[in-house]
Amino acid sequence: MGEVVAPGIPPGTGPYADLEALARRGRLHVIETVAHSGAGHIGGPLSAMDLLVALYFRVLRIRPDEPDWPERDRFVLSKGHSSVALYTVMAMRGYFPVEELQTFDRGDSRLQGHPDMLALPCLDASTGSLGQGFSVGLGIAMGTRRRGLPPHTFVMLGDGEAQEGQVWETVHVAPRHGAGNLTAIVDWNGMQQYGWALREGEEHSGNRRDPWAGIDLRGAFEAFGWKVLEIDGHDFGQILAACDEVRAGTAGTVPTAILAHTVKGRGISFTEGRSEWHARPATLDEAAVARAELAPAGEDAP
Amino acid sequence: MTRPQRDVWADTLIELAATDPDILVMDADLATSTRADKFAAAYPERFLQMGIAEQVMVGTAAGLSFTGYVPWVSSFGIFFSNRALDQVRMSVAQTHANVKIGAAYTGLMAGLAGKTHVDVSDIATFRAMPGMTILAPVDAAETAAMTRWATATPGPVYLRLGREAGPDVFGPDYVFEPRRVILLREGTEVLLISTGQQTARTLVAAELLGEEGISAGVLHVPSIKPVDDAAIAAAAASVPLVVTVEEHTVIGGLGGLVAEIVTAHDPRPLIRIGIQDTWAESAPNAWLLDRHGLTPERVADRVRRVWDRG
Predict the structure, then answer these.
(1) Hey, what domains does chain A have and what are their CATH numbers?
(2) Interface test with B, best of A146, A147, A168, A171 (most B CBs within 10 A)
(3) What is the pLDDT of residues B154-187, one digit of tens each?
């Protein structure tokens, strides 16, 4: 599909300069939205931001002005606690005004703490209780295929979320139903809310154990019959290539897991790799630092 | 004796599927017990085996409903009200998904399965869930009518199906109406309020009481939620003693519902007959009904003792 750039983002250089600028802007929206709300998640939204920008600005076949278009691709944020990142990207893509982000978590807002498809009808699912969105995505994929429609359904899971038993129910059932039009993107940022302490001598980019330390997550998906692609979830070239590959398999019978290696809190110096930023708002001073880091000269301040 | 409710449910869906291509039946590997296997034989392409995995079944059903299908998920009731309760809550009830829950083996008579498979509290659980419709048919005609209504009406429905056959209460021309309560027998001294298959036994209990000179009416509540509160309040206000009778715990089910209504309108003595905050045993049906005080004789005896006490 054609390239889409949000207003106010100047063309840069390099093949993905526009996406990189959108992701920087998105990260700033996340920090400022959560700071304004006084509560919300930071680490997961920032690790997922590049993936979401790539999906909504390059990969997904969608019509923001016709959100219920039957032939649209579907996207389910199964790790619903990263809602602020999804709202940010959907706002930048034109589903609703960016200013509406200011209402996040405000009672009667459409932007509830966890995605609510009744409150915000342009969502494809309601998520938040971990593990469920993956199954809902499977159902959507099975339904669109039964209808003879062409869409691909993308579901984003957290690596911590993948500890839920329901995730593995979906993993074993999806290949039995030949859901080649289903892709699970695992935002493998290597940290969960608290998790396990690092073992003696263990090395990790963060200060706690990886949710899948010592476990062959790739092998687990493969054992159940999934195709697995492993990428750097902050490299737009790799993200887009992987999505092209799963798109090509839409008519097939093998679902795909994209294991996207990411960094929790990515993009801001003081949040990267810090588990304490799983869910805590920035102070005014911290938000100012983030703004300085994320809004380089030449871009409009969001 | 009528046909078992589980058979009526499956046969009705087979009939409906002939003209409604969007009906799907999903199974968590209990199809030969729930009778979903009948649907599988009639419409193999519209039968979705999800394996012994109720959580993914419920979530997948929600997703299918978002593409316009009308999925009936089928399992034992306890696996919806317990194992996959969070999936029913978030993926179905909170999205008002058009998912229908065919809850088999509800009530006490679960084929000798015992406390692991008998859900004593499914009505209480789903009554407390916003947006959930709960239906409990007494017989074959009502089961068929509810199955048709649920399939045609948008939104989540929990249909409480019994394993065993019971007597017919209604004729084939029965029409189901949500909220409606049905006065099956007039009485001036005691009102017995009942739901599901228990209503048939409660009717016999009322006859026994009548033979002993106690005038007992019977009010059937097939639509637990939504329900016509005002009609229950008015019926309760017409007698000095109200008794609820249910194949369910006395906590939070029909007894809880009626207590909430009666205390808010015109308070009067209320006896709740049902499972007394305990688990069910694996035992023959007659033994279970007797142990938990739900045979006609046991119900009549309990009411008589309360009535005689004044």
Answers:
(1) 17-294 (3.40.50.970)
(2) A146
(3) 999 999 999 999 999 999 999 999 999 999 999 9
Residues in chain A within 8 Å Cβ distance of B50: 173
- How does residue A1 score in pLDDT terms, banded at 50, 70 and 90? very low
Interface test with B, best of A112, A130, A169, A224 (most B CBs within 10 A): A169
Q: At what angle do helices A43-54 and A17-37 cross, to 10 degrees?
A: 150
Rounded Cα distance between A22 and A27, Å, is 9
Note whether B5-160 and B182-309 share their fold. Answer: yes
Contact check, Cβ <8 Å, A139/B55: no
Residue A14 pLDDT > 90, yes or no? no
Encode pLDDT of B178-212 as tens digits: 999 999 999 999 999 999 999 999 999 999 999 99
- 3-state SS string for chain B: CCCCHHHHHHHHHHHHHCCCCCEEEEECCCHHHHCHHHHHHHCHHHEEECCCCHHHHHHHHHHHHHCCCEEEEEEEHHHHHHHCHHHHHHHHHCCCCCCEEEEECCCCCCCCCCCCCCCCCHHHHHHCCCCCEEECCCCHHHHHHHHHHHHHCCCCEEEECCCCCCCCCCCCCCCCCCECCEEEECCCCEEEEECCCHHHHHHHHHHHHHHCCCCEEEEECCEEECECHHHHHHHHHCCCEEEEEEEEECCCCHHHHHHHHHHHHCCCCEEEEEECCCCCCCCCHHHHHHHCCCCHHHHHHHHHHHHHHC
For B59, which of A116, A136, A141 is closest by C-beta distance? A136
Asked if the Cβ–Cβ distance from A138 to B94 is below 8 Å, we say no
CA B104, B106, B109, B111: dihedral to nearest 10 degrees?
30
Provide the residue ranges of all domains of chain B, joining segments of one domain with +: 5-160, 182-309
Give A133's contacts in chain B (Cβ within 8 Å): 59
Distance CA B101, CA B62 (A): 11
Which residue in the set A125, A128, A166 is minimally distant from B55, CB to CB? A166
* Fold observed for domain B182-309: Rossmann fold (3.40.50)
Pair A165, B90: CB distance under 8 Å: no
Closest CA to B150 of B192, B187, B106, B102: B102
Nearest CA in chain A to B24: A143
Whether the pTM exceeds 0.90: the reply is: yes
Q: Check A135 against B63: CB less than 8 A apart.
A: yes
Interface probe, candidates B56, B57, B65, chain A, greatest A C-beta count within 10 A: B56
My answer on whether omega of the bond before B226 falls inside 30° of 0, hence cis, is yes
B5-160 maps to CATH 2.30.42.10: no
Q: How far apart are CA B38 and CA B270, in angstroms?
A: 43
Q: Which residues in chain A are closer than 8 Å to B56, comparing Cβ atoms?
A: 135, 138, 166, 169-170, 173
Of all residues in chain B, what percent carry a pLDDT higher than 70?
A: 100
Cα of B54 to nearest chain A Cα, Å: 9
Spatial contact of B123 and B81, defined as CB atoms under 8 Å apart: no
* pLDDT tens-digit map of B121-133: 999 999 999 999 9
Per-residue pLDDT at A12 exceeds 80: no
ipTM above 0.90, yes or no: yes
Give the pLDDT confidence score for residue A204 in this predicted structure. Answer: 85
